[in-house]
Amino acid sequence: MNSAVLTRVDAGVAHVTLNRPDKRNALDRATVAALTTELRRCAADAAVRVVQITGTGKVFCAGADLGEMQAQAAASEAANLADAEQLAMLLGVLDSMPKPTLARVNGDGYGGALGLMAACDIVVAVDSARFAFTEVRLGIIPAVISPFVLGKIGAQAARRYFLTAEALSAAALKELGLVHEVVADGLLDTGCARITEALLQGAPGAQAQAKVLIRDMAHPAAGDRAAASMEAAGRLARLRVQEEAREGFSAFFNKRKPGWRQN
To answer: Mind listing the pLDDT tens digit for each residue in 91-139?
Structure first.
C-alpha cells in the first residue's frame, strides 16, 4: 500500500486517510493514483459498508501539489491533459461509489479538496476549517472539480467564488450546500460516528440503488458528471501551458504579486 494513502477497515467502515502531512496532504500524481486504487478496492470489498475520507494532521487537503503543477507548466498540453484526467478519474470513482461516502473534514481544504468533498455523499467539517477555490489566482480554473462542485453549490455561488477565490468558512460552505454539518474540533469523531451508525442501519443494496436514483433524478445531466469532468480536464490542460499560469505559479513560489495585480 502506498503510504501516501492509508486505509483501515473497522466494523464495516473503511477509514481512508490522505497521509502527506508534510505537504498538507496535497494531491500529487502518486497520491491521486493511490487514492483511486483504494476507493476501487473499497467498492469491491463486501466487508466495507461505508467509506470515510479524511486527512492526517490539522489539514484536510491542500488541493493539487503546486510544486508538481509548476513543473507541468513546462510540459506539453498532452502531458497536462493526462495529469488532469487522472484527477477526473479519481473524482468519478468517488462520485459513483456504490457505498455511502463520508468526508471527515478535519481542517482546511483548497482547490481539489473541494472536489473530493463535493464527490462525497455526506460532508462533516470542523468549524475552524477554511476553504477556497484558489485556481484563478494561479492563472488556471477549477475545471476538473466543477461538475461535482456545481452539483452541490449551483451556478450562482460558483459565479462568485470561482472568480474571487475568497476564503470560506465551514459555516459558509454549509449555507452553500457543500457541507452538511459543522462541528467543534473536538466533536468531529462524534459527529461522524453518529452519521456512520445511521448509514450502517440501511440495507447495502438499497443504499446503492438510492445513490443511482439520486444521480438519475436530481438533474438530467447528473449521471454525466464524470464525463463532464474529463472534458473539463482538457480546458485545464490548455490553460496550464499558457503564460498566465506560468506567471501565477512563478509569483506564488517567489512570494511576489503576479503581473495582473495592480496593488
So the answer is: 999 999 999 999 999 999 999 999 999 999 999 999 999 999 999 999 9
Instruction: Decide: residue 52, CB within 10 A, 0-12 exposed, 13-18 middle, 19+ buried.
Output: buried
pTM for this predicted structure: 0.87
User: Which residue is it, cell 484536510?
Assistant: 60
Q: How far apart are CA 71 and CA 84, in angstroms?
A: 14
- Domain boundaries along the sequence of the chain: 5-187+204-253
Q: What is the pLDDT of residue 74?
A: 77
Is the distance from CB of 56 to CB of 18 less than 8 angstroms? yes
Return the CATH number of the domain spanning residue range 5-187+204-253. Answer: 3.90.226.10
Q: How far apart are CA 33 and CA 95, in angstroms?
A: 16
pLDDT tens across 65-95, in order?
Answer: 988 887 877 788 888 888 889 999 999 999 9
Cα 126 to Cα 113: distance, rounded to the nearest angstrom: 15
CA distances from 163 to 89, 134, 160, 236 (A): 25, 9, 6, 15
State how far the Cα of 239 lies from the Cα of 140, in Å rounded to an integer: 6
